[in-house]
Structure formats: C-alpha cells, structure tokens
Amino acid sequence: MRRYFPIFLALLVLSLGFYAVHSLKKDQQRVSSNSIGNFELRKTCAIQPLFLSKLKIPQPIAVDLSQDRYRGVAFLFGQNLSQAVHPKSWMRFDHFSSYILDPEGNMYLTPMPYISVNPNTFNLQKSIYKLDSNSGKLSVWMSINEVKAGSNNPFGIIAIDYDCDDNTLWVSAIDETDYSTQRGVIYHIDIKSKKILQRVEGIDALSLKLLQSDQGKYLLVGSARESLLYAFYIDGGMLSSTPQKLLALPDANEHIRKIMLRGKNHLELQTIPFSYTLIAQTVEQGIRTNYNAYFDIRLNSWKLSVKK
Amino acid sequence: MNREQKISVLILTLGLLGIAGYWFITTSTPKEEKKAIPERVLLPNHDAGIYRNLPEVKAYIDDIHEHLNRGEAVLALDSNELDSAGIVVQKLLLKDQDFLKDTVSFDGQLQHNDMMTIRPAIISAMSEKTQVICQKVTCYQAEKYNFVSNATTRAIVDVKNQKVLEINRFADMQPDVSLRLTHIAQAIALNAPEVKAELGGKKPAFKDMSMANVRGGLHDSPCDNANHLCVAPTFSYHDREEALWAIIDLTDLKLAAAKWAGLGKTSTPSCISERSLQNRHIMENFCQKDTLHEEDGWKFAYRITGSDGLEVVNASFQGKDIIKSMKIVDWHVSYKAKEGASGLDTSSDNYVAGRRIEYIKGDNDEFFFGYNDAMGCPMFSTSVVLPFNAPRIKPLIKAGKKVGFYLIQDYRNPKWPMACNYRYENRFEFYRDGAFRIVGVNKGRGCGKNALYRPVMRIDMALSNQEELFKFDGAWQQWLTEQSDFQKDAKVYDQDKYLYKIAKKGSDEGYYIEPNRGQFGDKSRGDNATLFATKYKEGEGEQDLLTLGSCCKLSEDGVERYLDKHERIDGENIVLWYVPRIRNDAREGHEYCWADTVLEDGDLKVKIWPCAVGPKFVPIQRGQ
Lengths: 308, 624
Known about the structure:
The structure holds two protein chains of two kinds. By secondary structure, chain A is mainly β. Chain A has three helices and 20 strands.
C-alpha cells in the first residue's frame, strides 16, 4: 500500500489544484457577468417602531426625511398625511439621509449635510443614529471616528441596510473621497457588539440594498461617483473584493440614491444628480428620476425604463 | 525512481497540463478594453455676439424680427424642407388659432417660435381615435418649438380633408430641430474660435462634422440647461480615435461648450451636458491646481476655493511682494420685514429655495431674515452658488487706453435670475501703476426688495511681516491694536480719496486704501463698509472659511470674533477685512443689485442692474 502513496499524493495535489482553479474561474466569471441570477420579493423582517402603536397613530404612516417641512425625522399620518409625529428632540442631530428598521422596530438613520452648514454639521456626519422602538428616543448609536467630513467633502456616513440573516448593518461612508480618488468605505457592523466585522475600501456607495438570489446573497451598491449599479457577492457574511457592474444609467449625471426591490427580477432605482456639494440635492426641483430595472435571465441583460 | 513514482509524476504532469488547459481554453478571454482617452473640456471665451454676423445666423435673426414686425410669431419651415403635403399642412397650421394659442404672452407680446418638422405621422404620436382616422387617410405631424416657454407643440393633420385632428403641448421639452437650425449649428461650430484653436488654428472641415442635428430625442437634451435648445455637432478624427463635441446653444445662438473624447463606446458618455463639462473643466484646472498669470508687471497665482470664491495668492508687482491672499469669503444676505416679529415661529427651521433662513428680531416688531451664501468649487465643496464658466482675464480700458487688466469669476445659482436665486462676480483689477482693487459685484435678483448684501472681503498684504495700519481723520493716526471702523462715518479723506493706509513698519512703502464712494465710474452707490484689522493667525481665514457669522444681525459682520482680544497689530502681519453694505433697489428706473427677465423681440432677455463694491489700493508713493 505504501508504494502507491506517491500516486495518491499526485491525485490529491491535482484535486486541490483543480478545485482552486475552478473556484477562481467561477469568481472571475461572476465578476465579469452582469447577472446576479433570479431574485424575488422577500418578506421583510422589519417592523414599525412600537411607540407609534402606543401613541395610537393610525395607519398608513409615512417616514419623512425630505427636510421640506421637518428637520430630522418625522412620521406622517392622517388624511393626506397631513399630521406628523415630530418632537423637537428629533431635530437635534440635524438632517437624515436614509433609514432602516430592525425586527424590534428600532430605526437606524444615517446623517446628511443640508445646504446651510453650521459648525457642528461635519461632526454629525460620522455617526449612525438610533430611534428606539419603545421610547421613541433618538440618540447616537455608534460613531465611526475615522469618518471625517469637511468643507471639501461635507458628506460622511450616507447609506445603510439591515441584514435580517445575522442582525448586522451594512453602512457606507464617502468622506475620504476627493475629486481625483474614490476612497469610500463599506462597513459591516454587528449590532449586538457594535463591532466592525468587515471594512471594504475603494467604492463610494450612495445607496445600499441587500438581495438574495438563486445564485446567492448580494449587496447592491448605487455609486456616488459613477452612474452605475454594482453588486458585491456576499460569501459567509463577507463581501467579495471585486464588485460586478450590473447596469449603467443613460445620463452620466445621475446617481442611484435609492434601490427598491419591486418583484421578480425587478428593481426600482431612484436617481439624483450628485456632485459632493450641497446644492443639487435640494435647490433643483423635480431632480429625482425613477427607473424600472428588469433583469432578463434569458438574454442575460438588464432592461431599463423611466418609471412614469 | 520506481514504477509507482514514475506513474505519479506522469499523473501530476498530465493533470497540471489539464488544469492549465481548463484555465486557458475554457476561460473566454474578454476583449481588451480600449484605453479610455482622457476627456478634455473647453469653455467658450467669446460671447454670442461674434456669431451674429455669420450669414446663416444674421439671416435667421433678421427673419425673426421681420416676422415679429408683421405680427407673426412662428418662423415657418422653408419649402425645401417640405414635400407638397407638408406645404399644405404648414399653411393650415399657421392659421389655426388653437395651434398658435401659446405663441402670445399673457400681456399680448409675441413669443419666438420655430416650426421644426412636418412629416408623415407616426403611429406612436397619435391617440387611439386619431389612429383610426389615419388608417384611412394620409396624416402628417408637425412640431413647433416655443423658445420663450421651452415648450413643444405637436399637431396631427388629416392632409386630404385639411383638418387638424389633435394638438398636444409638451412643457419643457424640445423637438428635433429643423434643417435651417442644423445649418446654423454647423456654421457656429465651424466658426467657433475655440474649436479652431483646438484644431491647431485650422478651420475645421465640414466633411469631418456629423450629428449637427443630434439631440437626445424629444425628452432628453444633450445640453444640461434644460431651458435651452441645444445640439451637438461632432468632428470625428478616426486616425486619432478622438472626436471633438461642440455643444451649440440654439436659444442663444452660440457655442455652449466643447469636449474632446475618445471615439470608442467606452469613453463616450451617453449624455453630455454643458454643466457637467463646465464642472469638470473648473475642477481640474482651477480647483485642483493654481493658475499662474503674469501681465503689466504683475505676477500672481489664482484658484477657486471650496467656499471662499476666487482667491488671488502670492501677487507681486515688479518683483516686490504685495499680496499674500485676497478673496471674498462670504455674502451675507438679509431682508427686512417691517412687522411680524412678535408672531414669528422660530421653534423650527424655515427654508427658502433650499436654504435655512435665520431670523433676527429688531425693534418695533421689525425683523430681519436671510442667509449666508458661500461661493466655491462646483464639486466637493459646501458652496451653494456655483462658478459659471472658468475665470477670465480681460484688459482694463480707461479713455480708450489699456491701463491694466482684471481677473473675473462669475458665480450663479442654477436658476438665476429667478426669484431667490443669486449671481455674484468676484473681480480683481490690477493696474499698470501697481494699484489694485478687489470688487464684489452683485447681479440680483434675490428674494425681493429691502435686501441688504454684505460681501466679506479678506485681504492679507505681503508688504512685510512687520506692518502698520493708519486711519486718516485730518491726520494719519496709527492703529496699535485690532479694531474696526465704519467708513460711512468718515468726514474727511486724505487728498479726498484715502481713508486708510497700510505700510511696511517704519517706511512709506505700502498702500493707501481708497474706499468706493461712487468715484470709480461703475454706477456704484458706495461701499458704506466696515474695515477690520486683525493680527494674522492660523485658522482665521487663510484656509477655506465656512460661512462667517450671522446673515442678519446688522450690528455684526462676523469678523468681530477675530478681534475680541484686541491684540497689538503694530509691527505685526496685518489682515484686512473689508465688509461693504449694499441695499438693493427694485424701483423702476432706480434698479440696483437687481435682475429681471423681459420679453423683447420675441425672446426672453435678462436685464441686469449690477452693483459693484470694493476698495482700491494705491501705492503710497504714486498716490501722493
């Protein structure tokens, strides 16, 4: 038996080599493809904040981060959403960019600088804020001290999504980026321990959305820098290092601000012009465009149309 | 080596070859992407006036005037653009009151319209009812464009029965352009000095040009200014794999911008926009680096800052250092309301046009409200008033003679001159005799009358690290500590011009400061400024300042924070802060710091009544 050992060893080496090459090839194919497989709407694990029920606020309730009428966050309700829950204490961290809800009804919010900056504006951009489900108290949940917004780029933490599978947050920051180099970071944060599990550098994510397809789990990223939608493959809770380029918008000035899952192989993308300044987002009226993006699995291509 | 070892080596060799084959053969080699050719952006250096004498443009403008004088708002298509049915359709529509309904303004003035295309109707342009009719008869569709309202009107006509079947209007949309406008766009592109200069001084050839009528379709425009009709003739050079895109604004009849780009699909964007081209050009050339300029004995660098406008740095005259830094860091804008302070709800923020409004309560139920406008780079900044076009340098002419030159940068809110939008100019004048002037120009329009504008100017002289500042009150009195002075209160000026002077300690080497009291021939109503002198300190305005102080607290200009310790400035590096106060005027015939849009000769024209403020610095030896 011993004399056959070299043959077994050779076969073992070959098997390992083949496995490594095959895996590498699969990764390469995935990155060069614009497909993430079939995906469908999934039931969300998020629930509304419980204090809204305690206050007997009737449905439907809308979350308002528009800053048109209210600074910070407001919950709109009643006929034509004309009434609002908006205590003064919700204004103390200025304006918010995006939010997500967890299975307990806690709301996590990311900050946003808004036209008139004040001495505290930049400092607010490094934190993730939490609106407690039971008490309705708004507080700083976690600060990432390496995020440093400033006058040359007033943006810090900007996009967020909640991972129902492992009670973690995916958060992006774009403060490090300047005109010549994209230095955005995506953070994967464990909610319980507030520990940063992974930190991926080099991409400015203006929007984030987790998606489960028949090929696996992905983090979709709307680029702040380009008019592109990217997908990072998530393997064992970790982002792959290279994203796939899924689709490009027809107008180079548009950037994906919001990614919504609408049905089978169907995304809705909301875009805005974005130039790392404070003007375009607020002064221009009617600047948002909504696109329907369908993935045709047979043609292996995305079809984009303006949503009327 | 025994038999088993030989077999294992063979297996290993063959296996590795197999794995290599699997990797190389089954992996499709992606086509190597062509290296993207870096894009270069050109902004126009000339006004629309230089194109007015081109035969195509002149004939077109004359034609518009003739039509308007005849009481006709719509410029018809030439018969060579129409077939026989098209001629019938055009004749019918030019008499159709419904089709022409939007060619007159609410006060009865004619608005310039062009008939753009008349051709057989396509099914997607028709309603279902019209489709049924047009299955039986020949139908044509006609499109006209209103240059004033930026709207397209489309009519479907039953040619046989000469009946208008339907009319649709599309607000803020532009149609395909007529052959005549295509020729005009070609003429402008072929004669644009900027295009010629890019091609090594050689006039571009007609054969190299294509796509002069190309637009993004009815819904999209290649020009970012969505209120204008734009096309993009392109000069292609296949040997260099490059193309020069000339964006022609057919509303203003001028070159809007141009750009070199690769011919490959990978480097040609799907939609080019004048604004984004400008932004990139300004970022790459004026925000990312300093530009050096040398003229008339002056030598300096300039750059666009993140939020402090255009900055001149390290200026010298005839080899002597004069200015370390000179810029306008902020415009405070405040409005006065005569009553209502008691009813003000300031518990939450209020916004106008995206800006947070600050309220300051005054006496007798008065209150002041407003905001601070920062000017800066179009990307990666906190500015809200953005640069339009790049900085320009032009000659200063007095009595027909060049006496120096000036550097100017235009900043605008995107929707200026609409209400609550602003336009400012930063202007720096340099004279052959060593004098210079920092000028803030306001071109309105703001949110209304009763506005008070306060540009905050910062001038750090480089005469010496030991400087002295004096004020004239019949004799020159030195300021020994940090302080301020309200120029309007001054009763007497040295030589009837100079109120302050700054000099190298212990010498007469320096500059008189001549506040503007309307003597500079620019119709200014004076500065009414406050001058602050502070000791130079890091973190006090050398770097980009965010908005400084309150917009509306008229007892403060924001600079006060830097002189609260009243430190000694005698023999120190002194920084001057000069804050003029300008009240706007919207009264007819007295307009000042104001802009308005009026309908003139069928097209919208912007009327501007600028106000210019800022002191002149005159060398002491020359000023005596």
